[in-house]
Specification:
The complex is a heterotrimer.
Chain A (H helix, E strand, L loop, with lengths): L7 E5 L3 H13 L3 E5 L2 H11 L3 E5 L7 H10 L8 E6 L3 H9 L4 E5 L3 H11 L3
Parallel strand pairs in A: 1-2, 1-3, 3-4, 4-5
Chain B lengths: L39 E8 L2 E6 L3 E6 L13 E7 L2 E7 H4 L12 E7 L2 E7 L1 E8 L4 E2 L7 H6 E7 L2 E6 L1 H4 L8
Parallel strand pairs in B: 2-11, 5-7
Antiparallel strand pairs in B: 1-2, 1-8, 3-6, 4-5, 6-7, 9-10, 10-11
Chain C lengths: L3 H27 L5 H20 L3 H19 L6 H23 L5 H14 L3 H7 L9 H4 L13 E9 L10 H9 L2 E8 L17 E8 L3 H7 L7 E7 L34 H7 L14 H27 L5 H26 E3 L1 H18 L3 E6 L4 E3 H22 L3 H6 L6 E10 L2 E8 L6 H10 L11 H7 L21 H10 L3 E7 L3 E9 L4 E9 L2 E6 L3 E6 L4 E4 L5 E5 L2 E7 H4 L13 E6 L5 E6 L1 E9 L13 E6 L5 E5 L1 H9 L7 H5 L1
Parallel strand pairs in C: 6-8, 13-22, 17-19
Antiparallel strand pairs in C: 1-3, 1-4, 2-3, 5-7, 8-9, 9-11, 10-11, 12-13, 12-20, 14-18, 15-16, 16-17, 18-19, 21-22
The chains are: A alpha/beta, B mainly beta, C alpha+beta.
Chain lengths: 126, 181, 696
């Protein structure tokens, strides 16, 4: 059905449950998935995984989502890769702060699979 | 597990004596198990000159004799334990359990490895004679005049080609003293 | 693919870890560590539980976690200070949260009163309580409204609706935030009939051109029946990085310019192809070297079964290695040195594989110990006592099976320490002790085993009372003359309980005998020491793993047996030993002024098979957990080697004096002797402790 290799998503969340939910939803939608449990691990994986998209939580230990966005945007690797942040509906200020430093968009938490995929399709052509 | 195992695929580790050619090739196929009057298949063997059998579904494999390591404080019919591909498996002397003399040590003895509940247990016997099938109406209760030990360890009898074959009650073989684990 | 039940299981498993982290964080706060990261970690734990709960529509849990989180947020932002009363509330709230998780996990209906009480507690604290509770209703999984209705493939008819003019000017930095304007045009085109004119006027001269900047803008005419809000929603992501004008089309002013194809292929986006990973980051060796940040190393979650399989295979490898060695020794080859060398290497490799396999299973005791804080808190609150828990050596690692099976006995011992050990505040004050008693759990590695000591600074064992109870229950004759240690050992007798009334803590007929059997089943030992007025200590010694140990292969009663090397003190030849005969056939060996009882292994195990001549026999001195020593007689010593422990319980059952079995190099089975039980097996078949000999 897909005539190229599936788009690769790097999903970053410190919650194992969230990571597994993301993995399941993204797999079902046909994406290849790499998981990381915080910003630093995500940066470590970035070169190897060469993702087409990063989906990241904001509040994480070691390196939070803002730090991750700043690091990606100022790095060499994938500076212009789309980055979607996971935020709750009430996190408007967090959302804006993330966008100001370079988040491409956001995914409301809790997400359902259809919404997640629809959102990803807004920033990834396939 | 071995429900669908064709009889020819029974791993016979040390195939002495070879199973007789007359072994009834079973009509047992996996799809047929639901039929109520389906004859059960048994594996028949000898211990201290008597014929016994157990349901073939309980048999995991048949091995040549291996010396068992003796277990302290064990009931008299417990031969000991052997190493079965890394698992420690107790060996029971079926004859001794039934109140007969112990089976004499002989390197032609055979161990029938069976699964009883969750436990894997080996039965020490003299020879495996054949595999046969019998329907429920061919099975008879154990006569009252049998000794008490036999009563406790047998679940019935079958007359098959002129022989009286005792059906061993595998559950009853487990020593009650060790059941808790 | 993970099913939703699997995911649920993961959620609950993670929730347990988060609750532990929460508890830990709150304790750090209570100790005065109120820095941002501690507060943030506490916040994150609750937040993650809320997030996961929302995903599984566990509304009560979400609601409670949300209120909890709001209070924590005030701490985080500095709106509230971590005062002791605040922390106490948080600790209680954490317990409620744990209860809610437990209820949701087991599917037990939540007690509405309890939830209300718990919420009230939080509400009473935060002024904004009631309104916060209402907010959670927004936490039902709400899909992103604008996009759910977004028909990506549909082409609505252009007959109805209206015409809109959209001027869309991405900023120069739009690409750098990961935006791709062509995707926005694609989504917009799905809303109706669209014409777009590309404005190239901002393009710089080729030398000034920066491929990472956006210079294009679009003038779009859209004929659609969608609302303006729907259309604006398409631009919401890029809103910070683009200007957007949206107006009704003033009649027919549409300009037919060279239009850009709405569905531009992705390659047109200025994202560079993924670069090859730079060679400067060799991840593996780095992480292996990095020991200082051990707590933060990425971990791998693996199905326990897979690890077990690896452990088993590693064990088999060790056995087969030994078999190979035996075989080669029997048939020496041309170059024995070379063979010996490569065999030695194989042995080392096998052992390394085995060690790493075992290391995978090893886990720190910390999570288990941390759970005891709550146990202690609850026990103290029910008993009306004041107690605190001190933990030492929580990073000690043990096989996970042991940790799992240690949970119940440890819980019981901590409860016991509070229930029977620590005195009431009044009595403590009267005894000149601080009102708050201390229960201490200490773990350490000691000579290939792990030693765990659970001690309290309570009143110690009331020995007169213990002995009286044992007499009353017919456990010992009234005339029994018991030493203090013997009396303490009575506590381990089946059915013994010193609680005069069955309290809700140590009720249910569970006594120290259950703790003792649980420890014994793990191949462990338990001992008790007590000083009146000063406290009681339970010492537990456990094997590090249930899978391998160093064993000395001996021969007794005509068959090979294994003695745990950890219990062996020394070996003596029989004829060199100073033996003394006792009148009743028993014998003693004198060793550096100490007389030790002699026990024949073959006799103790009931193995009577061609005994070796006494002068050829060997004496092995073993030491038990209680430090008492014993001289065992065996026929000969074969070898000392690492052995793989195989369960006898699985297919057979427990045998007094035998810990387990192993498979030797020739494939035969050898039983592993349990020196401590061996004595008991002789002195009393019932398996009671050593006092029974004295009592008779």
């Amino acid at each position: 059905m897909r005539d190229r290799c599936p788009a690769h998503v790097l999903a970053v969340d410190d919650s194992l449950t969230m990571r597994e939910l993301l993995r399941a939803a993204l797999h079902d939608a046909g994406y290849a998935v790499t998981l990381a449990s915080d910003g630093r691990e995500a940066l470590d994986r970035l070169a190897e995984a060469a993702p087409d998209l990063i989906v990241t939580d904001l509040n994480m230990p070691r390196l939070d989502g803002f730090g991750l966005i700043e690091a990606v945007r100022s790095g060499q690797q994938a500076a212009r890769i789309p980055i979607l942040v996971l935020t709750t509906e009430t996190g408007q200020d967090l959302k804006d702060r993330a966008r100001r430093i370079g988040a491409t968009g956001w995914i409301g938490k809790p997400f359902d699979d259809a919404a997640l995929v629809a959102t990803i399709r807004r920033v990834l052509p396939y | 597990m071995q429900t669908a195992l064709p009889t020819t695929a029974l791993p016979i580790a040390a195939a002495q004596p070879p199973l007789p050619e007359t072994t009834s090739p079973s009509e047992h196929t996996p799809g047929e198990t639901a039929r109520p009057a389906k004859p059960r298949e048994f594996i028949a063997f000898r211990a201290q000159g008597q014929d016994f059998c157990i349901d073939i579904l309980a048999v995991r494999e048949i091995r040549g004799w291996t010396r068992a390591a003796a277990l302290p404080h064990a009931p008299h019919y417990v031969e000991g334990v052997i190493n079965l591909r890394g698992a420690i498996v107790p060996i029971f002397d079926l004859a001794a359990k039934l109140g007969l003399p112990r089976i004499p040590e002989h390197d032609r003895n055979v161990i029938i490895v069976t699964v009883i509940g969750k436990r894997v247990v080996g039965l020490l016997v003299e020879t495996v004679t054949d595999i046969f099938s019998a329907s429920a109406d061919a099975m008879h209760p154990v006569p009252d005049l049998a000794r008490e030990e036999a009563h406790a360890a047998l679940s019935g009898m079958i007359v098959e080609s002129g022989r009286l074959i005792r059906i061993v009650d595998l559950e009853a073989l487990l020593p009650s003293t060790v059941e808790g684990g | 693919m993970a099913s939703s039940t699997d995911l649920r299981a993961i959620f609950f498993e993670e929730a347990e870890e988060l609750l532990t982290a929460l508890d830990e964080g709150l304790r750090a706060l209570a100790r005065g560590q109120t820095d941002g990261e501690v507060i943030n970690a506490v916040f994150r734990a609750v937040h993650s539980i809320k997030g996961g709960a929302a995903a599984f529509a566990l509304h009560d849990l979400v609601a409670y976690a949300h209120s909890f989180e709001s209070l924590l947020d005030e701490l985080r932002t500095g709106a509230r200070l971590p005062q002791p009363d605040c922390i106490a509330t948080l600790v209680e709230a954490a317990d409620h949260l744990a209860d809610l998780v437990t209820c949701e996990r087991s599917g037990t209906p939540l007690d509405p009163d309890q939830i209300r009480h718990a919420l009230d507690l939080l509400k009473a604290f935060g002024e904004a309580g009631p309104s916060q509770v209402r907010i959670e209703l927004a936490f039902d999984p709400v899909p992103l409204a604008p996009f759910e209705a977004l028909p990506l493939a549909d082409m609505p008819s252009a007959t109805s609706g209206r015409r809109l003019r959209i001027h869309f000017r991405p900023h120069a930095d739009a690409f750098r935030a990961g935006h791709d304007p062509t995707l926005i045009l694609r989504d917009l085109a799905a809303f109706g009939e669209m014409d777009s004119a590309l404005d190239l006027s901002a393009l710089p001269s080729p030398e000034a051109f920066d491929p990472t900047s956006s210079y294009l803008s679009w003038m779009i005419t859209l004929h659609t029946d969608r609302s303006e809000a729907d259309i604006r929603a398409i631009f919401d992501f890029i809103a910070f990085h683009a200007d957007l004008d949206l107006q009704p089309d003033p009649a027919e002013t549409s300009a037919p310019p060279p239009a850009i194809v709405p569905d531009l292929p992705r390659s047109a986006a200025p994202t560079p192809p993924p670069a090859a990973p730079p060679p400067s980051r060799p991840a593996a060796p780095e992480s292996a070297r990095d020991v200082t940040t051990a707590a933060q190393k990425p971990t791998l979650r693996v199905d326990v079964e897979r690890v077990d399989r690896l452990v088993n295979v590693a064990g088999e490898l060790v056995i087969h290695n030994a078999m190979l060695t035996d075989a080669i020794n029997r048939h020496p080859a041309a170059d024995p040195h070379e063979l010996a060398r490569s065999l030695d290497q194989l042995r080392q490799l096998s052992r390394m594989i085995q060690d790493s396999a075992m290391a995978i299973r090893a886990q720190p005791l910390k999570p288990l110990f941390d759970r005891m804080h709550r146990i202690l808190r609850e026990a103290a609150s029910i008993a009306g006592k004041k107690a605190r828990l001190e933990i030492v050596g929580e990073s000690t690692e043990v096989d996970r099976t042991i940790i799992e099976r240690l949970a119940d006995p440890l819980t019981h011992m901590v409860r016991n320490a509070v229930d029977h050990g620590i005195e009431s505040p009044d009595r403590r004050r009267a005894a000149g002790k601080p009102e708050t008693g201390t229960v201490r759990i200490e773990a350490q590695h000691r000579s290939g085993r792990i030693l765990i000591v659970i001690s309290d600074d309570g009143g110690g064992i009331d020995r007169a009372r213990v002995q009286q109870i044992a007499v009353d229950r017919g456990l010992i004759p009234p005339s029994a003359d018991l030493g203090p240690a013997d009396i303490d050992a009575l506590l381990f007798l089946p059915g013994f309980s010193t609680a005069t009334t069955v309290s809700s803590l140590s009720g249910r007929g569970v006594g120290m005998d259950v703790v003792r059997s649980a420890i014994l089943a793990l191949g462990g030992r338990i001992g008790i020491t007590s000083t009146p007025g000063e406290g009681t200590a339970l010492r537990i010694s456990l094997p590090l793993t249930l899978a391998v140990m160093d064993g000395m292969v001996v021969r007794a009663g005509g068959q090979p047996l294994v003695l745990p090397v950890s219990s062996i003190v020394e070996t003596l030849s029989f004829d060199g030993a100073a033996l003394h005969s006792l009148g009743d056939g028993g014998r003693l060996v004198e060793l550096r002024g100490q007389c030790l009882p002699i026990l024949s292994v073959a006799t103790a195990l009931g193995l009577t098979h061609c005994p070796a001549r006494p002068q050829d026999q060997v004496i092995i001195i073993v030491e038990r957990e209680d430090k008492s020593r014993l001289a065992l007689i065996v026929d000969e010593i074969d070898d000392q080697r690492q052995i793989v422990i195989k369960s006898l319980d699985e297919n057979y059952g427990h045998i007094p004096g035998i810990a387990a079995a192993t498979v030797l190099g020739d494939g035969s089975v050898a039983l592993i002797i349990d020196p401590a039980e061996l004595v008991q097996a002789r002195s009393s078949r019932a398996g009671l402790s050593s006092f029974s000999a004295a009592a008779e």
